[in-house]
Amino acid sequence: xxxxxxxxxxxxxxxxxxxxxxxxxxxxxxxxxxxxxxxxxxxxxxxxxxxxxxxxxxxxxxxxxxxxxxxxxxxxxxxxxxxxxxxxxxxxxxxxxxxxxxxxxxxxxxxxxxxxxxxxxxxxxxxxxxxxxxxxxxxxxxxxxxxxxxx
Length: 151
Hints:
Blueprint: H1 12-23, H2 38-43, H3 45-56, H4 64-67, E1 70-72, E2 83-85, E3 94-96, E4 102-104, H5 123-144
Antiparallel strand pairs: 1-2, 3-4
Helix pairs in contact: 1-5
């Protein structure tokens, strides 16, 4: 199960194992594992990066020059070699970063759902998957102490 496409979405199983490994090393599992919901990274990247920086014990850092440019590994792109550009209403030009340097403005070129050949999922299959994942997701949310915004 854990090697299948469906099994890869059962995050609670491997994460539970890691929490068990670290349970003897610290009073709180949160001392060793920090979980980020990708939806949070998309919605509030500055907050997420600040939280990760604090968790790692690193000095404060302004990530806006990175988070304002775009995201990697989204919109059908694989790997981290291409920025998925953020939408820009004026369609281009340049902007100034926090140090006064000029950066190109980016436009989101990621394919929309209508542009990508997606696997059709019937309502019946979608409901079956929701019911299958529900107990695993609830266990995950219990482990990490927060809920990811999934259905």
